[in-house]
Amino acid sequence: MSQTKNNMMIRNYFKTALRILTRNKVFSIINILGLSLALTCVIVIFLFIMHELSFDKYHSNYDSIYRIVSNQIQNGTEHFDETVPYPLSGVLKSELTGQKDVTQIYFANERLLKVGDDKYLERGVLYVDSNFVKVFDIEFLIGSPDKLNDPNSIFLTEAIALKYFGSNDEALNKNIVIHDSVTLNVAGILKNPPKNTHIPFQAMLSIKNLKEEYFNFGYDSWGTRSSGFATYLTLKNESNFSDMELKIQEIVDKHNPNDEEAQRTEFFILQPLSDVHYDDRFGSFNGTYVLSKKLLFIFASVGLFIILIAFINFTNLSIVQTIKRAREVGIRKVLGANRLTLIKQFLGETFLILLIAEIIAVIFTEIILSKINTFLGSGTELKMYGNFSVIIFLVIILALLTFLSGIYPATVLSRYNPIRALRYNMKLGKAKSFSLYNLLVFLQFFISQILIVSTIVISLQLDYFRNKDMGFYKKNIIMIDLPGYEASKAKVMIDLLESNPDIEKVSLGIGSPLSGSNITSSFQRIEDLETDYHANMKTVDTSYFSLYGLKLIAGTWSMLSQENDSTFNIVVNKTLIKKIGIENPSDAIEQYLFIFGKTYGKITGVVEDFNTYTLHSKIPPVIFVSYEDFFTQIHIRTNEKHYSEVKDFIEKCWDQVYPQYVYSYDIFEDSIQRRYKSEQRMSQITKTFTFIAIIIACLGLFGLVSYMLVQRTKEIGIRKALGASAASVILLVTKQFISLVVISCIFAWPAAYYLMRSWLNNYAYKIELSVWIFILSGAALILITFLTILYQSIKVSNTKPADVLKYE
């Protein structure tokens, strides 16, 4: 009987709640729409953060896997590198105690694979040693891990097996030619790696397959950095973390005597696998993205801000509704309803509104999720169905918002004196809730102002990235990767290209000026071999400088060449000569450096500094050398007027010289933009969420103004009867909210300044946070607020006094 009674009461609560919702259509629509938009944003942000926090956690050794990285320190400036010298892995395997397994990998961003007459330019070819499967969890669908040590074998993922052969079984034991010279046998099929991995391979083969000539230029020396080799290990006892770093450093000192303790400029660090995806001090050697936890915190904060604005709207509208429903409460109390019954009733109404909003939000999210995944890129796949954490999150949000946004209005309503309530003389301006109401409106504007400032600053910083003079030409430059190191064919290609009058310059080299470095090597001055320095090494020909518009400030670059087996003529940048204590660029000419740990470099030219890294980092020392066997790219600067025709011409030249290889190219300007992809995404996301937050705030403001004007209709009628103009009535209505906007801006600006200053500190080159940014943001919020309430204000100001006062 008791259970039946409870069920009837619950049904009664919901029936009453539905009647209230349909009776107050405007308020219901505003509440549900605002909450639905906010919850959609919050669900998407939650899915994104959960995806990012899941990176690499599927490995059974997750807590004990470490990547060895390096930290180079010169003159107080730190440079971090995620790859380490090639010899390190071998000596650690034999000499390091306390490690369980050590593995070394090389990730090739692009390799030519041939299956019969079909050619594929494949990204994600991973070279591994036999310990790789002991450290990382790799699922072998077909084949044995032992074959990974066989230089004649290759393993394909399911996706590649399907792409090349149509099925896993058809792929097994088939031949694949790599580099147009090495034939490999498909020894097995691997399960596709999950999206949440920092090693997204497509094919896997033995590290023994790397050609010996790969080491001809010093890649195998201790002094060479950024060689492309990453080294991982698992520890037997994780508590030995600090001791293990010291042991690694001792081993390096033993095998690299040029980096003795007294002169040490480089330290090797154990980076937990749990930090690899989030530590933005290190780049990504394998083409995956790194997302700092600061950005995740920012996204979480934006989600919190949006739900706060929606919560404030809902609470404010609930507060004004309490006054409107005072007579209803009085009647219920007279009829015997107690305080607890009333609280349950109004919490039930709140729950129903939030439940409807949450259902709509889930539908919205499912509709837009595919587009969001496309926007975020192939490395991200957000899913709702089958994700139990989403269900828990939604239940918690529903319960929390029901309690927080419903308990105060319900408590206020339940306290009303029946006699006073039945007189219906409750006014918003006289209610005890007025101070809370103003505080909530203030918080809403406060958050909106921070979001607007953030959006403007991020957009300006991105514009700064696009427009800053980085010290080189950006436009109309095409880069083509050469197959292997066939220098003779490259020269034939250059002759064909230079025959076209619309091609202004052609050059050979490795990487663009902004490519960072293909090799980071230590060097010393001949006069002081004890002091160790580090520089980015760029292998280029003499045309490279004029093609990219690099500025010569001393000497010449025309002598850039290899003089003999032990000496190179080199060109350096201005930062390098300052590092070694030379102020006048002319004084650096004819000076000798000891490079690669085995050769001499004679400085024949000095160029002005240019950004070899993105604007996140300061300009490092750079050494240009000319080594033909390592020219892996052709750089082409074209005439802007015939850009499309020239691209077609370049492809025809390629087919003539390299008919057996797949043609691919990159546009330099596009490659620059890709380096700021995370910032571009952040800008778009912030703009979108700021826009949504403002819409939600405006919806709430619209509802509040509507109710306030209904309450003040009599007052406005009297004022108009006494001669008040329409403008004075509009001012009367708007000044309360405009005052709150101004106050909220004054409080929001310091907070926004601190947040944006912290974000900008991630960049070596950045905009200044000038006063006009904050003034513009405040003016924008004032204008948005004014326009939101203007329509209703005009409508009320045009009301005839007689229509308002005739029933008084």
Characterise this structure:
Helix content is 50%, strand content 19%. It is an alpha+beta fold. The chain folds into three domains: 15-51 and 293-464 and 678-805, no CATH class; 62-276, no CATH class; 484-660, no CATH class. Strands 1, 2, 3, 4, 5, 6, 7, 8, 9, 10, 11, 13 and 14 form a 13-stranded mixed β-sheet that branches. Strands 17-18-24-21-23-22 form a six-stranded mixed beta barrel. α9 (293-324) runs parallel beside α12 (388-415), α9 runs antiparallel to α14 and α9 (293-324) runs parallel beside α21. It is elongated. Residues 259-263 and 428-434 have low confidence and may be disordered.
What secondary-structure arrangement, pairings included, does this model have?
Blueprint: H1 2-23, H2 25-53, E1 65-74, E2 77-81, H3 87-95, E3 99-108, E4 111-115, E5 118-122, E6 125-128, H4 132-135, E7 140-142, E8 153-157, H5 158-165, H6 168-171, E9 175-178, E10 182-190, E11 203-206, E12 224-225, E13 229-235, H7 241-255, E14 266-272, H8 273-276, H9 293-324, H10 326-334, H11 339-376, H12 388-415, H13 418-422, H14 434-467, E15 477-481, H15 487-498, E16 503-509, E17 519-525, E18 528-539, H16 543-548, E19 552-555, E20 562-564, E21 567-573, H17 574-579, H18 585-588, E22 592-595, E23 599-607, E24 622-625, E25 633-638, H19 643-657, E26 665-667, H20 668-674, H21 677-711, H22 713-721, H23 726-760, H24 771-797, H25 801-805
Parallel strand pairs: 6-11, 8-10, 18-24, 21-23
Antiparallel strand pairs: 1-2, 1-13, 1-14, 3-6, 3-13, 4-5, 4-9, 7-10, 8-11, 9-10, 12-17, 15-25, 15-26, 16-25, 17-18, 17-22, 19-23, 20-21, 21-24, 22-23
Helix pairs in contact: 1-11, 2-9, 2-11, 2-21, 9-12, 9-14, 9-21, 11-12, 14-21, 14-23, 14-24, 15-19, 21-24, 23-24
